[in-house]
């Protein structure tokens, strides 16, 4: 699979994850979100930046929803619930958020 971005063909796997994570940029993330009918807010970016930091700076860790809830509760200074994250990324915060953030598909089972 692939999609067009900035005059280039970007290769993805069958589930829409980038084949080459180095292709990703913030503008591409915005484009990918638009393809999934998501309008990115600061909170979306907080989640995506957290996922990217964990992956690239912490041994390719791909946090599950529980870890994202804990991290975003701390970052936002309020206790959030699973539903708060699913409002941002309805198909699964860790998987859909990771895909839009340019990360490879997580192979772990379950989101919580």
TrEMBL record:
Any single Pfam family the record assigns to this protein:
DsrC
What's in the GO CC field? cytoplasm
Gene name in the database record = tusE
Q: What is its main location?
A: cytoplasm
The record's keywords, sorted A to Z, are: Cytoplasm
A GO term, aspect molecular function = sulfur carrier activity
- Localization of this protein: Cytoplasm
- Report whether Cytoplasm shows up as a keyword of the record: yes
Does the keyword field hold Cytoplasm? yes
Q: Which InterPro entries match?
A: DsrC-like_C, DsrC-like_dom_sf, DsrC-like_N, DsrC/TusE
Its name, as the record gives it, is TusE/DsrC/DsvC family sulfur relay protein
**Please, which domain of life does this record's source organism belong to?**
Bacteria
**BP GO annotations:** tRNA wobble position uridine thiolation
Q: Which family does it belong to?
A: Belongs to the DsrC/TusE family.
Query: Where does the chain cross the membrane?
Result: none
